[in-house]
Protein backbone atom coordinates (compact mmCIF):
# COMPACT_ATOMS: atom_id res chain seq x y z
CA UNK A 1 0.00 0.00 0.00
CA UNK A 2 1.44 3.43 -0.85
CA UNK A 3 1.68 6.12 1.80
CA UNK A 4 -0.99 8.20 0.05
CA UNK A 5 -3.40 5.25 -0.02
CA UNK A 6 -2.69 4.45 3.61
CA UNK A 7 -3.41 8.04 4.63
CA UNK A 8 -6.66 8.04 2.71
CA UNK A 9 -7.68 4.71 4.24
CA UNK A 10 -6.93 5.96 7.74
CA UNK A 11 -8.90 9.19 7.24
CA UNK A 12 -11.85 7.13 6.04
CA UNK A 13 -11.56 4.94 9.13
CA UNK A 14 -11.44 7.97 11.40
CA UNK A 15 -14.66 9.36 9.96
CA UNK A 16 -16.46 6.23 11.17
CA UNK A 17 -15.87 7.06 14.85
CA UNK A 18 -16.55 9.89 17.29
CA UNK A 19 -13.34 10.01 19.30
CA UNK A 20 -12.50 12.07 22.37
CA UNK A 21 -8.76 11.96 23.12
CA UNK A 22 -7.88 11.41 26.78
CA UNK A 23 -4.49 13.08 26.70
CA UNK A 24 -1.89 14.57 24.38
CA UNK A 25 -0.23 11.23 23.65
CA UNK A 26 -2.60 8.31 23.97
CA UNK A 27 -6.00 7.04 25.07
CA UNK A 28 -9.41 7.93 23.65
CA UNK A 29 -13.11 7.48 24.38
CA UNK A 30 -15.26 6.29 21.49
CA UNK A 31 -18.76 7.70 21.72
CA UNK A 32 -22.03 6.55 20.20
CA UNK A 33 -21.04 3.11 19.05
CA UNK A 34 -22.96 -0.07 19.84
CA UNK A 35 -20.39 -2.87 19.97
CA UNK A 36 -23.06 -5.49 19.21
CA UNK A 37 -23.94 -3.91 15.86
CA UNK A 38 -20.71 -2.96 14.15
CA UNK A 39 -20.42 -2.69 10.39
CA UNK A 40 -17.22 -3.98 8.77
CA UNK A 41 -16.15 -0.36 8.23
CA UNK A 42 -16.62 0.37 11.93
CA UNK A 43 -14.61 -2.71 12.89
CA UNK A 44 -11.78 -1.49 10.63
CA UNK A 45 -12.04 1.95 12.22
CA UNK A 46 -11.92 0.52 15.75
CA UNK A 47 -8.83 -1.52 14.84
CA UNK A 48 -7.09 1.52 13.37
CA UNK A 49 -8.03 3.71 16.36
CA UNK A 50 -6.84 1.02 18.77
CA UNK A 51 -3.40 0.92 17.16
CA UNK A 52 -3.20 4.71 16.98
CA UNK A 53 -4.54 5.57 20.48
CA UNK A 54 -3.34 2.40 22.29
CA UNK A 55 -6.18 2.48 24.84
CA UNK A 56 -9.83 2.94 23.85
CA UNK A 57 -12.99 3.05 25.95
CA UNK A 58 -16.48 2.40 24.68
CA UNK A 59 -19.11 3.90 26.97
CA UNK A 60 -22.77 2.99 27.44
CA UNK A 61 -22.46 -0.67 26.40
CA UNK A 62 -24.49 -3.51 27.88
CA UNK A 63 -22.53 -6.59 26.77
CA UNK A 64 -23.04 -10.18 27.84
CA UNK A 65 -20.07 -12.60 27.94
CA UNK A 66 -21.08 -13.81 24.47
CA UNK A 67 -21.30 -10.23 23.12
CA UNK A 68 -17.85 -9.47 24.46
CA UNK A 69 -16.40 -12.61 22.87
CA UNK A 70 -18.18 -11.82 19.58
CA UNK A 71 -16.88 -8.23 19.54
CA UNK A 72 -13.31 -9.36 20.30
CA UNK A 73 -13.49 -12.05 17.59
CA UNK A 74 -14.11 -9.37 15.00
CA UNK A 75 -10.84 -7.69 15.98
CA UNK A 76 -8.58 -10.73 16.07
CA UNK A 77 -8.06 -14.30 17.30
CA UNK A 78 -8.93 -14.97 20.91
CA UNK A 79 -6.69 -16.80 23.36
CA UNK A 80 -7.89 -18.66 26.43
CA UNK A 81 -8.97 -16.13 29.05
CA UNK A 82 -5.66 -16.60 30.84
CA UNK A 83 -2.86 -19.18 30.57
CA UNK A 84 -3.22 -20.17 34.24
CA UNK A 85 -6.31 -18.74 35.99
CA UNK A 86 -9.45 -20.83 35.63
CA UNK A 87 -12.79 -19.01 35.21
CA UNK A 88 -16.37 -20.18 34.93
CA UNK A 89 -18.33 -19.63 31.70
CA UNK A 90 -16.83 -19.32 28.21
CA UNK A 91 -13.15 -20.37 28.12
CA UNK A 92 -12.19 -17.07 26.50
CA UNK A 93 -13.37 -15.09 29.53
CA UNK A 94 -11.03 -14.29 32.43
CA UNK A 95 -12.98 -13.06 35.46
CA UNK A 96 -11.36 -10.51 37.73
CA UNK A 97 -13.73 -10.46 40.70
CA UNK A 98 -12.82 -9.12 44.13
CA UNK A 99 -15.42 -11.41 45.75
CA UNK A 100 -13.59 -14.50 44.40
CA UNK A 101 -11.54 -16.18 47.16
CA UNK A 102 -8.64 -16.46 44.67
CA UNK A 103 -8.75 -12.73 43.85
CA UNK A 104 -5.64 -10.64 44.28
CA UNK A 105 -5.25 -7.00 43.32
CA UNK A 106 -3.31 -6.23 40.11
CA UNK A 107 -1.78 -3.22 41.86
CA UNK A 108 1.58 -3.57 40.22
CA UNK A 109 2.45 -2.07 36.85
CA UNK A 110 2.42 -4.83 34.27
CA UNK A 111 1.71 -5.73 30.68
CA UNK A 112 -0.55 -8.74 30.34
CA UNK A 113 0.95 -12.22 30.23
CA UNK A 114 4.48 -11.20 29.15
CA UNK A 115 5.67 -14.39 30.86
CA UNK A 116 4.51 -16.38 27.83
CA UNK A 117 6.46 -16.62 24.56
CA UNK A 118 3.57 -15.05 22.67
CA UNK A 119 1.89 -12.56 24.98
CA UNK A 120 -1.55 -11.24 23.96
CA UNK A 121 -1.64 -8.29 21.56
CA UNK A 122 -4.67 -6.75 23.24
CA UNK A 123 -6.86 -7.10 26.28
CA UNK A 124 -10.54 -6.17 26.30
CA UNK A 125 -12.03 -5.48 29.72
CA UNK A 126 -15.71 -5.04 30.60
CA UNK A 127 -16.97 -3.49 33.81
CA UNK A 128 -19.55 -5.85 35.35
CA UNK A 129 -19.94 -4.68 38.98
CA UNK A 130 -18.26 -1.54 40.29
CA UNK A 131 -17.69 -0.12 43.76
CA UNK A 132 -19.24 3.35 44.43
CA UNK A 133 -15.78 4.84 44.44
CA UNK A 134 -12.32 3.52 43.61
CA UNK A 135 -11.22 0.75 41.28
CA UNK A 136 -9.83 3.00 38.55
CA UNK A 137 -7.26 1.56 36.15
CA UNK A 138 -4.17 3.45 34.97
CA UNK A 139 -2.15 2.92 31.78
CA UNK A 140 1.35 4.00 30.79
CA UNK A 141 2.42 4.66 27.20
CA UNK A 142 5.58 2.60 26.76
CA UNK A 143 6.39 4.15 23.38
CA UNK A 144 6.16 7.70 24.70
CA UNK A 145 8.35 6.58 27.60
CA UNK A 146 10.93 5.12 25.22
CA UNK A 147 10.92 8.25 23.04
CA UNK A 148 11.43 10.53 26.04
CA UNK A 149 14.55 8.72 27.27
CA UNK A 150 17.84 10.39 26.44
CA UNK A 151 19.57 9.09 23.31
CA UNK A 152 22.42 7.35 25.18
CA UNK A 153 19.97 5.43 27.40
CA UNK A 154 17.86 4.52 24.36
CA UNK A 155 21.01 3.11 22.74
CA UNK A 156 21.78 1.12 25.90
CA UNK A 157 18.31 -0.43 26.23
CA UNK A 158 17.95 -1.07 22.48
CA UNK A 159 20.49 -3.91 22.81
CA UNK A 160 19.17 -5.55 26.00
CA UNK A 161 16.90 -8.52 26.58
CA UNK A 162 15.04 -9.40 29.78
CA UNK A 163 13.69 -12.52 31.43
CA UNK A 164 9.96 -12.66 32.28
CA UNK A 165 8.83 -15.17 34.87
CA UNK A 166 5.17 -15.90 35.65
CA UNK A 167 5.98 -18.01 38.71
CA UNK A 168 6.08 -15.10 41.16
CA UNK A 169 2.47 -14.13 40.37
CA UNK A 170 1.01 -17.42 39.14
CA UNK A 171 3.22 -20.32 40.28
CA UNK A 172 1.39 -20.88 43.58
CA UNK A 173 -2.01 -20.69 41.85
CA UNK A 174 -0.92 -23.23 39.25
CA UNK A 175 0.25 -25.64 41.97
CA UNK A 176 -2.95 -25.10 44.01
CA UNK A 177 -4.93 -26.19 40.97
CA UNK A 178 -2.93 -29.38 40.55
CA UNK A 179 -0.81 -27.91 37.74
CA UNK A 180 -3.91 -27.53 35.57
CA UNK A 181 -3.53 -24.45 33.40
CA UNK A 182 -5.38 -23.43 30.27
CA UNK A 183 -4.45 -24.00 26.66
CA UNK A 184 -2.16 -21.33 25.26
CA UNK A 185 -0.83 -21.37 21.70
CA UNK A 186 -1.87 -25.00 21.31
CA UNK A 187 -0.35 -26.43 24.51
CA UNK A 188 -1.76 -26.85 28.02
CA UNK A 189 0.17 -24.72 30.49
CA UNK A 190 1.34 -26.94 33.34
CA UNK A 191 4.49 -25.00 34.21
CA UNK A 192 5.79 -21.52 33.59
CA UNK A 193 9.34 -21.66 32.23
CA UNK A 194 10.81 -18.14 32.17
CA UNK A 195 10.96 -16.53 28.71
CA UNK A 196 13.21 -13.86 27.24
CA UNK A 197 11.96 -10.79 25.38
CA UNK A 198 13.71 -7.69 24.04
CA UNK A 199 13.71 -4.76 26.49
CA UNK A 200 12.66 -2.54 23.59
CA UNK A 201 9.81 -3.96 21.54
CA UNK A 202 9.22 -2.90 17.95
CA UNK A 203 5.48 -2.67 17.36
CA UNK A 204 4.58 -5.09 14.58
CA UNK A 205 1.94 -2.78 13.08
CA UNK A 206 3.58 0.65 13.35
CA UNK A 207 7.29 -0.07 13.69
CA UNK A 208 7.44 2.23 16.77
CA UNK A 209 9.72 1.26 19.63
CA UNK A 210 8.49 0.94 23.21
CA UNK A 211 9.81 -0.23 26.56
CA UNK A 212 8.81 -3.85 27.12
CA UNK A 213 9.72 -4.59 30.73
CA UNK A 214 7.32 -4.49 33.66
CA UNK A 215 7.58 -4.93 37.43
CA UNK A 216 4.82 -7.55 37.42
CA UNK A 217 6.57 -10.18 35.36
CA UNK A 218 10.11 -9.13 34.42
CA UNK A 219 12.58 -10.85 36.74
CA UNK A 220 15.87 -9.45 35.45
CA UNK A 221 17.86 -8.15 32.52
CA UNK A 222 19.79 -10.96 30.84
CA UNK A 223 23.58 -11.00 30.71
CA UNK A 224 24.31 -8.26 33.27
CA UNK A 225 25.00 -8.37 37.02
CA UNK A 226 22.12 -8.40 39.52
CA UNK A 227 23.04 -4.90 40.66
CA UNK A 228 23.11 -3.61 37.08
CA UNK A 229 19.79 -5.32 36.33
CA UNK A 230 18.12 -3.78 39.38
CA UNK A 231 19.52 -0.34 38.58
CA UNK A 232 18.45 -0.44 34.93
CA UNK A 233 14.96 -1.80 35.69
CA UNK A 234 14.38 0.73 38.50
CA UNK A 235 15.33 3.52 36.12
CA UNK A 236 13.02 2.22 33.38
CA UNK A 237 10.05 1.61 35.72
CA UNK A 238 10.32 5.07 37.28
CA UNK A 239 10.48 6.58 33.81
CA UNK A 240 7.67 4.45 32.32
CA UNK A 241 5.23 5.42 35.07
CA UNK A 242 5.91 9.17 35.22
CA UNK A 243 2.50 10.90 35.46
CA UNK A 244 2.92 12.50 32.03
CA UNK A 245 3.26 9.04 30.50
CA UNK A 246 0.02 7.80 32.08
CA UNK A 247 -3.76 8.10 31.88
CA UNK A 248 -6.30 6.92 34.45
CA UNK A 249 -9.83 5.70 33.77
CA UNK A 250 -12.74 5.81 36.19
CA UNK A 251 -15.01 2.98 35.13
CA UNK A 252 -18.75 3.45 34.67
CA UNK A 253 -21.24 0.58 34.40
CA UNK A 254 -21.21 -0.84 30.87
CA UNK A 255 -17.78 0.51 29.95
CA UNK A 256 -15.58 -1.63 27.75
CA UNK A 257 -11.87 -0.85 27.47
CA UNK A 258 -9.34 -2.23 25.01
CA UNK A 259 -5.59 -1.72 25.23
CA UNK A 260 -2.57 -2.55 23.16
CA UNK A 261 -0.25 -4.74 25.23
CA UNK A 262 2.49 -4.11 22.66
CA UNK A 263 2.56 -0.40 23.49
CA UNK A 264 1.32 0.03 27.09
CA UNK A 265 1.51 -1.17 30.69
CA UNK A 266 -1.29 -0.85 33.26
CA UNK A 267 -2.07 -0.81 36.97
CA UNK A 268 -5.37 -1.60 38.76
CA UNK A 269 -5.78 0.82 41.67
CA UNK A 270 -6.19 -0.97 44.99
CA UNK A 271 -8.53 1.38 46.86
CA UNK A 272 -11.86 -0.44 47.27
CA UNK A 273 -11.01 -3.07 49.84
CA UNK A 274 -14.04 -4.99 51.11
CA UNK A 275 -16.25 -3.88 48.21
CA UNK A 276 -17.19 -5.91 45.17
CA UNK A 277 -15.66 -5.06 41.82
CA UNK A 278 -16.07 -7.55 38.99
CA UNK A 279 -14.63 -7.28 35.51
CA UNK A 280 -14.52 -9.69 32.57
CA UNK A 281 -11.52 -9.80 30.26
CA UNK A 282 -10.82 -11.40 26.92
CA UNK A 283 -7.48 -11.26 25.10
CA UNK A 284 -6.40 -11.20 21.48
CA UNK A 285 -3.59 -13.45 20.36
CA UNK A 286 -0.26 -11.72 19.83
CA UNK A 287 2.95 -12.55 18.06
CA UNK A 288 6.40 -13.10 19.46
CA UNK A 289 7.95 -9.76 20.51
CA UNK A 290 11.01 -8.65 18.56
CA UNK A 291 13.47 -5.86 19.17
CA UNK A 292 15.35 -3.31 17.09
CA UNK A 293 18.04 -5.84 16.10
CA UNK A 294 15.42 -8.02 14.39
CA UNK A 295 13.19 -5.27 13.03
CA UNK A 296 14.66 -5.63 9.52
CA UNK A 297 13.37 -9.20 9.38
CA UNK A 298 9.80 -7.98 9.90
CA UNK A 299 7.84 -5.37 8.04
CA UNK A 300 4.97 -3.57 9.72
CA UNK A 301 1.64 -5.23 8.90
CA UNK A 302 -0.18 -1.98 8.16
O1 LIG B 1 -9.05 -4.81 37.01
C1 LIG B 1 -8.48 -4.01 36.28
O2 LIG B 1 -8.78 -2.82 36.19
C2 LIG B 1 -7.36 -4.45 35.42
C3 LIG B 1 -6.86 -5.81 35.82
C4 LIG B 1 -5.81 -6.25 34.88
O3 LIG B 1 -4.65 -6.11 35.12
C5 LIG B 1 -6.23 -6.84 33.61
O4 LIG B 1 -7.41 -6.96 33.33
O5 LIG B 1 -5.34 -7.17 32.83
FE1 LIG C 1 -3.48 -6.76 33.47
From TrEMBL:
Q: Which GO terms describe its molecular function?
A: metal ion binding; taurine dioxygenase activity
A Gene Ontology term for the protein's cellular component: cytoplasm
Q: Which EC number(s) are documented for this chain?
A: 1.14.11.17
Q: Which domain of life does this protein belong to?
A: Bacteria
Q: Tell me which residues make up the TauD/TfdA-like domain.
A: 19-283
Pfam families per record: TauD
The alphabetical list of record keywords is: Dioxygenase, Iron, Metal-binding, Oxidoreductase
User: Has the keyword Ubl conjugation been applied to this entry?
Assistant: no
- Describe the family membership recorded for this protein in Swiss-Prot or TrEMBL: Belongs to the TfdA dioxygenase family.
PANTHER family cross-referenced by the UniProt entry? ALPHA-KETOGLUTARATE-DEPENDENT SULFONATE DIOXYGENASE (PTHR30468)
Write down what this protein is called. Answer: Taurine dioxygenase, 2-oxoglutarate-dependent
